[in-house]
């Protein structure tokens, strides 16, 4: 009975939280989900996969509550984007590939994961997004990146060092999403934090976002991801080009960060930066892509089945004499979303993927200038990272697409007030 006492005491509080979340999921539950995304299974609930990560139950709860709000609440004024039907078609083709899949079980699991992500994307495409929802989402995105940076420093300085990832050495994120994916998951937080570091009205807000951007940058460097570092540079350059004001401060900030990075890579303190400067190989990607090239003769028309690239690798590796057996063997992914899509769902799937991402880019380009820079930078950086990763089914990839939807809907639901005309112009109009 005593063991149940804490649950009895907390039950009213839990009920109040659930009621608040169900009535207003976008203000409360969406930020909670966003914060958990970069941490993956590190926030484990001890449940069987795929519910082992806290972000997955939050995603499912967010889908249910947002569906309820979409059915009864106010709809967005934004016209439906062409991205949603494109992703639905891709989902349908991926599901259909189960008919000829090399592994129906892998395809079913992969399609189920994709279904949840597209459901949330679709629901957020039709509900009204007010300014507070967008602001809370932006705050949650920045907090997630800053928290990752603090966790990386805590591991490095206080918890005995960064986790080891195979023969790649100690790398931040090795025990989360994998080091490379963790670095890619931090691109959106970096893209949101950088403009606010120079454009926030209050000086305290600017300083907080500078600190957050620095922490995010530290986490990316500690991940040892060369692709992540390149993608972060792309994020900064796009922010610099697309931000309407504060470029001088951004340039100074970037120069200081670049100088610090050069020193770290040159000196490798405590081994930090050693992987970026000490590894000149493709880390097995060239062998994987060579096997994918060979597999294309058999699978690039209709595909091997969604999420079955590991089976393709297992089948084709003995047939490619110049390839070698990699450390993680058949668990290796394609490490490129375009190659992965071509092999798994063939030319139709590749065309749908390309169309969906082009339409996403179009939606971003049509955003008002005040909202455009962060989603544009995050999208560009994620596309660069996706040249080296198989991350299309990851929550952080879809969070970039979802953030674009939030910005798009907010631009219609909360249009910026028009500035009054200058006094002289008003006098001429009256005259």
Can you offer a commentary on this structure?
The chain has 431 residues and is mainly α. The protein has one domain. 68% of the residues lie in helices and 0% in strands. Helix 6 crosses helix 8 (187-199) and helix 6 crosses helix 9. The protein is globular. Mean pLDDT is 85; it is low at 1-10 and 423-431.
Quick structural gist:
The protein has one domain.
Strands, helices and their partners?
Layout: H1 5-23, H2 25-36, H3 55-72, H4 83-96, H5 104-126, H6 131-157, H7 179-185, H8 187-199, H9 203-222, H10 226-242, H11 247-267, H12 274-278, H13 285-299, H14 309-316, H15 337-365, H16 369-385, H17 395-413, H18 423-430
Helix pairs in contact: 1-2, 2-3, 2-6, 3-5, 4-5, 4-15, 5-17, 6-8, 6-9, 6-17, 7-10, 8-9, 8-10, 8-16, 10-16, 13-15, 16-17
Structural shape: globular
Total of helices: 18
Overall structural domain count:
1
Poorly predicted segments: 1-10, 423-431
Percent strand equals under 5%
Q: Average pLDDT across residues?
A: 85
Question: What are its keywords?
Answer:
431 residues; 18 helices; disordered N terminus; disordered C terminus
């Amino acid at each position: 009975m005593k063991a149940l006492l804490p649950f009895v005491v907390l039950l009213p509080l839990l009920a109040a939280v659930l009621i608040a979340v169900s009535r207003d999921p976008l203000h409360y539950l969406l930020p909670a989900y966003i914060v958990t995304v970069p941490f993956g299974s590190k926030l484990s609930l001890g449940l069987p996969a795929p519910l082992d990560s806290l972000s997955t139950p939050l995603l499912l709860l967010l889908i249910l509550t947002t569906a309820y709000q979409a059915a009864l609440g106010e709809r967005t004024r934004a016209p439906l984007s062409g991205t949603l039907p494109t992703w639905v078609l891709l989902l349908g083709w991926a599901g259909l590939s189960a008919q000829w899949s090399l592994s129906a079980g892998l395809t079913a699991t992969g399609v189920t994961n994709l279904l949840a992500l597209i459901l949330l994307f679709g629901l957020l495409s039709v509900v009204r997004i007010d300014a507070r929802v967008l602001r809370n989402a932006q705050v949650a995105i920045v907090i997630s990146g800053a928290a990752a940076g603090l966790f990386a420093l805590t591991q490095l300085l206080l918890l005995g060092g960064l986790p080891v990832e195979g023969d790649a050495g100690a790398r931040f994120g090795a025990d989360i999403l994998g080091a490379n994916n963790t670095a890619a998951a931090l691109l959106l937080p970096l893209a949101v934090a950088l403009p606010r570091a120079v454009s926030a009205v209050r000086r305290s807000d600017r300083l907080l976002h500078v600190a957050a951007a620095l922490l995010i940058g530290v986490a990316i460097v500690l991940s040892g991801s060369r692709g992540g570092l390149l993608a972060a540079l792309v994020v900064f350059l796009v922010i610099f080009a697309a931000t309407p004001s504060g470029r001088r401060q951004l340039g100074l900030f970037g120069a200081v960060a670049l100088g610090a990075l050069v020193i770290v890579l040159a000196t490798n303190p405590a081994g930090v930066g050693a992987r970026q400067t000490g590894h000149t190989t493709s880390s097995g990607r060239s062998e994987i892509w060579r096997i994918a090239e060979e597999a294309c003769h058999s699978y690039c028309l209709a595909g091997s089945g969604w999420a079955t690239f590991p089976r393709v690798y297992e089948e084709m590796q003995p047939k490619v004499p110049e390839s070698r057996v990699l450390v993680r063997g058949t668990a290796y992914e394609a490490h490129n979303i375009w190659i992965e899509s071509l092999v798994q769902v063939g030319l139709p799937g590749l065309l749908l993927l390309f169309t969906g991402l082009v339409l996403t880019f179009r939606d971003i380009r049509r955003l008002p200038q005040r909202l455009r820079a962060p989603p544009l930078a995050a999208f560009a950086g994620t596309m660069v990272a996706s040249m080296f990763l198989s991350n299309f089914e990851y929550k952080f990839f879809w969070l970039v697409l979802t953030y674009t939807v939030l910005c798009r809907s907010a631009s219609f639901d909360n249009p910026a007030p028009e500035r009054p005309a200058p006094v002289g112009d008003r006098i001429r109009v009256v005259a």
